[in-house]
Amino acid sequence: MDRPFIQVDLVSRRFENTGMAEGADLPLRYQTPDVWAAQVLRDPAALLNDHAHLEKKAAANALELLNRWPEPNPPEYWVEKMTAIARDEVEHLAVVSRLLARRGGRLTKYHRNPYAQALRELVRRGTGVSELLDRLMVSALIEARSCERFEVLSRNCGDAELAKLYSELWASENGHYRIFIDLARQLPEMRDVEGRWSELLDAEAAIITAQSPGPRMHSCPANVG
Ligand SMILES: [Fe+2]
Ligand SMILES: [Fe+2]
């Protein structure tokens, strides 16, 4: 018998009784139209391959952030939060790559994600706590966009197995988004946090709409200018 899709999902489990999973109001400033899902689902194996790579990178990002927090004042439960996210992402990677293999695909060796790369270029490097603020906000943006895209996919996917996967991942990425943005807002001695968040939300909308079309989680629909 197949294992359930998400066997362990520490972060979304924490949110399951709070009503957040149903009531996510994401602040994103570009709303993905349903036509995007129809386009990317024409090649589900390619979409799963791209998706698996993103899960791998999300796990690595959480572990990398663990190394970057300025000592000696990490926020409460910092290690627990980052390790829970990393564990979720590794589990997502296992689920997605298993599904990809069952459908005759294979995780490719190379993967590019110009969307995430463009977002990372916005990070103010070498600025101490401002750099960390930006890294947490960029992580929150990537999670929020994944969450939004999983919702669009789950609503527009005729394949029951994929629709179930996408709807389960939606709740998990929503929990991750909230953790990252909450941490950013708790950073000590930061000024104009909401102003920076607004700037980055605008930048994210510009970056996602500048992506080329194709069967990828961060592509732009073919007919959107
Ligand atoms: Fe994930
Ligand atoms: Fe995530």
Could you describe the 3D structure shown?
The chain has one domain: Ferritin, core subunit, four-helix bundle (Ferritin, Up-down Bundle), CATH 1.20.1260.10. Helices cover 63% and strands 0% of the residues. The protein is built from 8 helices and no strands. The protein has helices at residues 10-15, 34-40, 44-68, 78-102, 114-120, 129-156, 160-185, 193-209. Helix 2 (34-40) packs across helix 6, helix 3 runs antiparallel to helix 4 (78-102) and helix 4 runs antiparallel to helix 7. It is globular. Bound molecules: fe (ii) ion (2 copies). One fe (ii) ion binds next to helix 3, helix 4 and helix 7.
Write the layout of secondary structure elements.
Layout: H1 10-15, H2 34-40, H3 44-68, H4 78-102, H5 114-120, H6 129-156, H7 160-185, H8 193-209
Helix pairs in contact: 2-6, 3-4, 3-6, 4-7, 6-7, 6-8
Bound molecules: fe (ii) ion (2 copies).
Residues 58, 89, 143, 173, 176 line the site of one fe (ii) ion.
Count of helical segments?
8
Helix content: 55-70%
Alpha-carbon distance between the termini? 46 Å
Kindly provide the name of the CATH class.
Mainly Alpha
